[in-house]
Amino acid sequence: MKVVIQRVSHASVTINGTVKSSIGKGFLILLGIGCEDGQEDIDWLVKKVVNLRVFDDENGVMNRSILDDGGDIIVVSQFTLMASTKKGNRPSWIHAAPHELSVPLYEKFCSDLSTALGKSVGTGEFGADMKVELLNDGPVTICIDTKHKE
């Protein structure tokens, strides 16, 4: 699994002109799911996300987690994170998990993340044409790949 985590002042996902999810301060997470991903990736990534210390403490130092700060999260499926650009200029999606694997893993990631956060996590809609708006706070953007944990 690959994620791009953006610390935001606010974010929303709109589908067909209707806002599906919106949050104030927190994380907008773009999630890419690969063919070899599974529950072990979800477990590791959920723990990493909720404990990531990128929110400012009273001294203005990034030393607080989203759990400490009480922020919200939106997770948007983003198969394009799995793009391979080794050959030519047209990306290959060979490493992206097929729909029948991606959907349950996406839903499980969101469910487990919601449990760890202690509140509902906003979502997009898997496979939909989504309009994602955000105000990146900082800006702070972190990329994590569960296959490169070092």
Please give a structural write-up.
The protein is an alpha/beta fold. It has a single domain, classed as D-tyrosyl-trna(Tyr) Deacylase, Chain: A (3-Layer(bba) Sandwich), CATH 3.50.80. Helices cover 24% and strands 37% of the residues. It has three helices and eight strands. Strands 1, 2, 3, 6, 7 and 8 form a six-stranded mixed β-sheet that branches. Helix 1 packs parallel to helix 3. The longest helix has 19 residues.
Summarize the structure.
It is globular, with a radius of gyration of 15 Å. The mean pLDDT is about 95. It is about 25% helix and about 35% strand.
Number of domains: 1
CATH class: Alpha Beta
Radius of gyration: 15 Å
What is the general shape?
globular
Biggest sheet statistics: 6 strands, mixed
Q: Label the structural class.
A: alpha/beta
How are helices and strands ordered from N to C? Answer: EEEHEEHEHEE
CATH superfamily: D-tyrosyl-tRNA(Tyr) deacylase
* Terminal Cα span: 15 Å
Low-confidence stretches: none
Tell me, rounded to a whole number, the average pLDDT: 95
**Count, helices:** 3
Write the CATH architecture name.
3-Layer(bba) Sandwich
Helix-residue proportion: 10-25%
CATH topology: D-tyrosyl-trna(Tyr) Deacylase, Chain: A
Q: Give the strand content.
A: 35-45%
Number of separate strands: 8
Features:
150 residues; alpha/beta; D-tyrosyl-trna(Tyr) Deacylase, Chain: A; two-stranded antiparallel sheet; 3 helices; 24% helix; 37% strand; globular
Topology:
Layout: E1 2-15, E2 18-23, E3 26-32, H1 39-51, E4 55-56, E5 62-64, H2 66-69, E6 72-77, H3 99-117, E7 122-123, E8 130-145
Parallel strand pairs: 3-6, 6-7
Antiparallel strand pairs: 1-2, 1-3, 1-8, 4-5
Helix pairs in contact: 1-3
